[in-house]
């Protein structure tokens, strides 16, 4: 996906490896279902996944972000649910590029998530640059006690910054340019035409 300000409401994305690619742009996913195997959500985009279900068929990781260093937010999963085909079959993410940014906020995770949670893609240097974060992960795969040391376990104050407005309100530019885009306005506008079912 290369178009900026893309909105997906109650959509299904079905695939294996590389199911969803996001380019240097912004996307908003609401109540969507996304399934795949290795790195099935990948690329440099800033994307907000709101109350989505992720279904993993196994593989190295769910995400392979390549967020640019100058971009504050990459992939943000909030109030989501992760299920899969079996236990201990994947991690939450591995950095396709050094400054990969991924955050899981209030996400329920099945046993499909490995206890360590994250992978450095075979390069220890990525551990110093990748921006991986979790807050209030729950479920069998949500325990953070065995997570890699370089993941950031957010405080409530830090997690509260991951709002739709903060994540998507700035264009994917260097330097960043604020335009206060609100994708919920798009969903509200289209719902009057019966597209919310």
Automatic annotation (TrEMBL):
GO biological process, one term: pectin catabolic process
Biochemical pathway: Glycan metabolism; pectin degradation; 2-dehydro-3-deoxy-D-gluconate from pectin: step 1/5
Domain of life: Bacteria
EC number of this enzyme: 3.1.1.11
Transcription listed as a keyword: no
Residue ranges of every copy of the Pectinesterase catalytic domain listed in the record: 2-168
Listed GO CC annotations: cell outer membrane
Keywords: Aspartyl esterase, Hydrolase
Listed GO MF terms: pectinesterase activity
Active site: 39
Family matches, as InterPro entries: Pectin_lyas_fold, Pectin_lyase_fold/virulence, Pectinesterase_Asp_AS, Pectinesterase_cat
Enzyme class: hydrolase
Recorded family membership: Belongs to the pectinesterase family.
Name the record gives this protein: Pectinesterase
């Amino acid at each position: 996906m290369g178009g900026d300000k893309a909105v997906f409401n109650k959509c299904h994305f079905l695939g294996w490896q590389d199911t969803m690619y996001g380019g240097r742009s912004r996307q908003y996913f609401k109540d969507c279902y996304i399934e795949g195997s290795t790195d099935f959500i990948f690329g440099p985009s800033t994307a907000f996944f709101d109350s989505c279900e992720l279904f993993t068929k196994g593989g190295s990781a769910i995400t392979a972000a390549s967020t640019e260093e100058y971009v504050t937010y990459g992939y943000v999963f909030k109030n989501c649910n992760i299920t899969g085909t079996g236990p201990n079959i994947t991690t939450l993410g591995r950095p396709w590029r050094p400054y990969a940014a991924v955050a899981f906020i209030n996400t329920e995770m099945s046993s499909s998530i490995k206890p360590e949670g994250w992978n450095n893609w075979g390069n220890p240097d990525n551990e110093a640059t990748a921006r991986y974060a979790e807050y209030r992960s729950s479920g069998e795969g949500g325990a953070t006690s065995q997570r890699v040391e370089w993941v950031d376990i957010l405080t409530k104050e830090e997690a509260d910054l991951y709002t739709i407005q903060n994540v998507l309100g700035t264009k994917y530019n260097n330097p960043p340019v604020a335009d206060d885009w609100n994708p919920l306005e798009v969903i509200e506008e289209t719902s009057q035409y019966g597209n919310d079912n």
